[in-house]
Amino acid sequence: MQQHNNSGLVGIDLTRFKTLQRLAYDCAETIAGELRPGMTERQVAKQMKTWLLDHGVNDWFHQPFAWFGDRTAFRGFSGFNPRFYPSGRVLELGMPFILDCAPVMQGAVADIGYSGCLGENLVQERLMDDLARHRELILKLIRQRESMAEVSRAVDRLCQQQGVEPRHKAYPFSVLAHQVGPLAEKGGFSVGRFGVRSVSWLVRAGIEGRRKGQSPLWSSARRSEHPPATGLWAVEPHLGLGPVGAKFEELLVITPDDAWWLDEDLPHVRRWRERRLTVAA
User: N or C: which end of the chain has fewer CB within 10 A?
Assistant: First the structure.
């Protein structure tokens, strides 16, 4: 196993973040296994929230989201549009789905995205295969110390080559990723499904980042025209093809002289290995 130098990650206990990220993915896999026709996005998001609270989560970066069918492609979504919120959309056989949650526990933050289908959807299978190249590309270019904006633009170019759309551009501020950091080990509260402590941390990181010429919001925009910023980044390439979307979201560790994905044993990574689409970093 490759050893990494954690220098520069002052105050960040990577073990806690890794443990919480696995818990979040365990939640998504468990709930995905319980999906049945007739369930709504709101019902599934509520089940995810209950599961995580029952397993020790005490706050949120954001509470769980669920998207079914053509809503996985974020058609008509943009910025802080309320269409992002779980709806009454009913799950049917053959429908793709995305489950997304961002819990906080013991001062650690995770933000994950899990894509699947109730039955079979060949378009989503293709998108999940395509995502393997994005994960490899992002890590390669960050290790080469390309600017964060250029890495995001490279993702855009790869999408074009693959004939898919970068649907993460529908997220607030068109982000490919956002930074996360440790919080105090106490509970918090949410407003509009977002945790106040986590959002406050992100705002403070933005203020501090401006002094350094950096941004905690990683996109193709000018604000990301800076070298890789040390810290933890929740990276979420989201691909769309017609009415179908697929994504993963996981934590990338960046230090002053290295970068690596926090965990190489996540559901999408295992899937790619089984299909011989990726290798360990």
Answer: N
In a domain, 1, yes or no: no
Q: Is residue 281 part of a domain?
A: no
Contact 244, 117 (CB under 8 A): no
Cα atoms in the Cβ-side hemisphere of radius 13 Å centred on 240: 17
Residues 115 and 74: their CA atoms lie apart, in Å, by 14
Contact 11, 259 (CB under 8 A): no
Domain extent at residue 219: 14-274
Does residue 279 belong to any structural domain of this protein? no
**Could you give the number of structural domains in the chain?**
1
Write out pLDDT tens, residues 174-189. 999 999 999 887 767 6
Question: Per residue in 121-162, pLDDT tens?
Answer: 999 999 999 999 999 999 999 999 999 999 999 999 999 999
| Position 237, amino acid | P
Quickly list DSSP for 202-249.
HHHHHHHHHHHT--SEESSSGGG-SSPPSEEEEE--EEEETTEEEE-B
Can you give the pTM of this predicted structure? 0.94
Helices of type H across the chain: 14-33, 41-54, 122-143, 148-162, 196-212, 267-274
CATH number at residue 34: 3.90.230.10
Residue 44 lies in a domain: yes
R_g (Cα) of the chain, nearest Å: 18
Give the integer Cα–Cα distance in Å for 76 and 170.
9
The residues with which 245 forms a beta bridge, in sequence order, are: 240
